[in-house]
Amino acid sequence: MNILDKIVLRKKEEVALAKQAVSVKELEAGLHFNRNPYSFKEFLLDEQCTGIIAEFKRRSPSKGIINDQVSVEDVTTAYAAAGASALSVLTDTDFFGGHTRDLLKARAANQIPVLRKDFMIDEYQIIEAKALGADIILLIAAILTPAEIKHLAAISKSLGLNVLLEVHNQEELERSICNDLDAIGVNNRNLADFTVNIQTSFDLVDQIPSEFMKISESAISDTETIKQLKQVGFNGFLIGENFMKTANPGQAISAFVSELKSV
Ligand SMILES: O=C(O)c1ccccc1NCC(=O)[C@H](O)[C@H](O)COP(=O)(O)O
């Protein structure tokens, strides 16, 4: 059993428990349920922003603890102030040390799109994401069938949420594309064995139909790579560890963006 299998197995248990604890009706009565999500595309294409989707990531299966000493509010507001186009907040607890509370805090403190970064396998989690104040949800092709992707994307769109589909290779891309997606992310990390290779993004970019925003995800650590990814057509860059591994992720993104503007 690889790490993705383990995560999905645990996620099924978590979702079953969450359904018992909080009904869909209760979620629909939540604070943020009726707010209009921000447009992911608008913020990605806004020239005042950088295209960076900056991630709040305490730990990961591949790296263990990355940073458990900083607050969600401090880090995410610094990310937004530095010009991030969107925030990514991990809400998985067992494998990433995140929490749904983190998303609520990021939502309350920021006025840019927030991605609920989790392993979505059930429509309950989509409704929960809306109730938490998320603007974007992630669908990972490696853990979903094409029919599941279609179903979860349609529900997300009906709630006004933006949908980011994540793929790792051409086969996943071809079988998973459907209506109701806004963006396609190419994950440079193989989630089954943790190997990373930026070349994955360059290899897949031309296969992504032009109507979708194009996002390169994981293992991005220098501004030169962003410049090259932009040149081949990427609109967004999901970055977690590179900022979070420092004592001050806000300062790290600020220095990164200053360098990005000068290259
Ligand atoms: O990061 C991991 O170790 C990981 C393991 C298993 C499934 C997912 C995993 N990461 C999720 C992500 O895709 C990244 O958090 C995100 O793209 C940011 O990556 P990075 O900039 O390399 O932290």
UniProtKB/TrEMBL annotation:
It is an enzyme of class 4 (lyase). One of its GO terms (biological process) is L-tryptophan biosynthetic process. Residues 4-255 form the Indole-3-glycerol phosphate synthase domain. Transmembrane segments: none annotated. SUPFAM superfamilies: Ribulose-phoshate binding barrel. Gene3D superfamilies: Aldolase class I. GO terms for molecular function: indole-3-glycerol-phosphate synthase activity; phosphoribosylanthranilate isomerase activity. Belongs to the TrpC family. This is Indole-3-glycerol phosphate synthase. The lineage of its organism: Bacteria, Pseudomonadati, Bacteroidota, Sphingobacteriia, Sphingobacteriales.
